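User: Predict the complex.
Assistant: Input components as received:
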Amino acid sequence: MSGIAAKAAAMRRGRGSRFLRSASLRFALLCAALLGSGALAVAGFVWLEMIVLVDRNADEAIDQDATALISAVNRAPRELWLRALRDEIDVRLDKNANDAVYLLASPDWVVIQGTLARWPDELRGVKGWRTVHIEWFDQGDVQTMLRVLVLRLEPYGYNLLIGRTLQLRGQLIGILPEALTWAIAVVIAMATAGGLIVGRLFRNAIMNVSATALAVSHGDLTQRVRLSGRGDEFDRLAELINGMLDRIGRLMDGVRNVSNAIAHDLRTPIARARARLEDAIAAGRSNEELRAAMERAVSDLDEITSIFQALLRIAEIESGSRRSAFAPIDLAPLLADLADLYGAVAEEKGITLTLSSPDRLPALGDRTLIQQAVANLLDNATKFSPPGGTVSLSARSGAGTVVITVADTGPGLAEPDRARATERFFRGETARHTPGSGLGLALVQAVVLLHGGQLALEDNQPGLRAVMVLPAGPAADAV
Amino acid sequence: MRILVIEDDKDVAGFVVKGLREAGHTVEHASNGRDGLFLAAGEDFDAVILDRMLPGGIDGLRLVEILRDEKKTVPVLFLSALGEVDDRVRGLRAGGDDYLTKPFAFSELLARVEALTRRSRGEGPTTEIVVGDLELDLLSRTVKRAGQKIDVQPREFRLLEYLMRHAGQVVTRTMLLEGVWDYHFDPQTNVIDVHVSRLRQKVDKPFPTPMIHTIRNSGYMLKAEPE
């Protein structure tokens, strides 16, 4: 085979196998196979039933003949039984000339009267019902199928054969297979067509989804799966996929915003460090001054590092991987420790820090993260409260929840700011001139969401009240 | 002290080795996992500073696991750019004694390494710690200086205990936060400074010589005799 021919053959094979791999073709073939075998079963059943019906009709007719002949023998005087039988056979023969066969033979099978030339060999010495092929005596070598009843007339020893030709059965056998084959062929053809049509419907629906998926994977996140408007399963799938794409789009936007914010907010301290170093090089004064400039640059870099650490921490929390470290914990001692840690800071600033908490506060979560979240809230509260103000840390167990509240008497946040305060790098108007990265509340929010809880920022009149709702621990039921 | 530094980054390694030598330690350096393991297993060191991601087929975690399997108890400090909580946990579980995330301040590293070697010298369970005229009774949880009883809060007691256990060494704010409060995050305000200054009010102020010293850019040090 030449190379080109081989290649062409390979291509044909390739196309063929691709067509064979298509799900809609498989579906059509499956339909055809199922319906075809169903039709075949029906045809087979019809076939058998027809044959049985025909045979049964023959049997009934033979039975009637037998009853009539035997009663004729019994009715006749004893010496005239043969005469009576032969008369009756004549009567019957006249009536059923078409398909009936009668044969009366002596005890040694010599034919006395009947429609056959001689007693068939295979029926010698047998009694009862038989189905036989017999050569019709006046039609040469034509074979006919016969249903026969062979009787022995006692006490005379004569043999009587009553039969019916099964011509109808033969005719049926001639017609039925063809009719049934056609029927089956039509069923298979229609099933294949139906399968292909349904398969095409499926394929169109899938093409619709895969076209969208392809566009999205090439970066076009605006594409959506078209809805047919019928509200069927395909539409529901399309809605699900569109919902998923919407969510991915929002997440992508979020990532983009965060990246922008990071780039922007890190630029400030980096610019500051750079300016200091450049200034130190340019001015090139005493060793002392150089050292001081470098130390400040190092602390600027430390600030950048801590922003990175906070961002990475938030990302780590948001990824949900910390959930595996969840354990039942008692928050009461944890809060007492935090109140102790920040109490000293508050006192230093002339702020009163109060703690009100039950003796036990079972919760389920990550100890370190909850610590850090509450610490961030206390940090903010002590930072923004004026001297003489009050910071209150309170906690209580609710229905399946633990509610931790940190309230201060500082300037608080304006309504629109409260809604945005948990965004990364967001800083309220009053916070512009205080140190901080604008990541504290973002981390609190991330921790609370990781625990499946809620964070609410409310007006404390005056000041801010942050309310963390966390799920209670398993021990809560036992208490 | 004899310290082994296993770190593949030339700049970081050079900086660490130089700093440790200036602090008066003898330092060996290996730049890949295989050489590092060879040195750590073959010779005696007081501490090992170990990068987690190393060339040479053996990474930091594996190296520590092998050392611990060989019953080498030398204290190991991980130095790693992998800073997630799980990374830290994994490092400590593999047999590390401390974990420091890059970037780091050298003073923090030095303080932690020196604290490690002190710990590994194994002072065992004690009931009393004495530094100069300062006495800490761990059983009755009382503090005396020059024979005079000082009233401290439980948390102040633990802070003082930590400082005294590391007497003569620099302890950083992070070390105090981890060692005394068991907090593994950086609070934005310097909460530690406030607590140390409160402790000073009680331990140093009534007496002629202060014992708790602030070390610039590093942390604190408690020592008996003034400079």
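Helices of chain B lie at 10-22, 33-42, 60-69, 85-93, 106-120, 154-165, 173-180, 191-203.
Let me know if you want any component modeled separately.
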